[in-house]
Write a structure and sequence with these properties.
119 residues; mainly beta; 0% helix; globular
């Protein structure tokens, strides 16, 4: 089991920055991959950025060059630094963790944090 607690959302003007944090309840070394997804009203949840245990990162095309995912292993925390925010980045952002075991692959989700980009 992995509990995930997000923080850092809020209201920001276009062009501004926010940093989201996701604290995991156990060592990130035991987690295969962690990522951030978002869901805007009326839209499906989509991957924003992810990082694997081998430090491979991937980003949605819409955020490349603006968002950065990083990990602090000592704090068991994953961050999403969001720069040059646009109104279309408005959504609820969810932290995700994927674990692998002999019994299969498991997904865990945080409760979500609202990000609103508006003037």
């Amino acid at each position: 089991q992995v509990q995930l607690v997000e923080s850092g959302g809020g209201l920001v003007q276009p062009g501004g920055s926010l940093r989201l944090s996701c604290a995991a309840s156990r060592s990130i070394f035991s987690i295969y991959a962690m990522g951030w997804y978002r869901q805007a009203p009326g839209k499906q949840r989509e991957l924003v950025a992810a990082i694997t245990s081998g430090s491979r990162r991937n980003y949605a095309d819409s955020v490349k060059g603006r968002f950065t995912i990083s990990v602090d292993n000592a704090k068991n925390t994953v961050y999403l630094q969001m720069n040059s925010l646009k109104p279309e980045d408005t959504a609820v952002y969810y932290c995700n963790a994927v674990t692998l075991s002999t019994s299969g692959e498991y997904d865990y989700w945080g409760q979500g944090t609202q990000v609103t980009v508006s003037s």
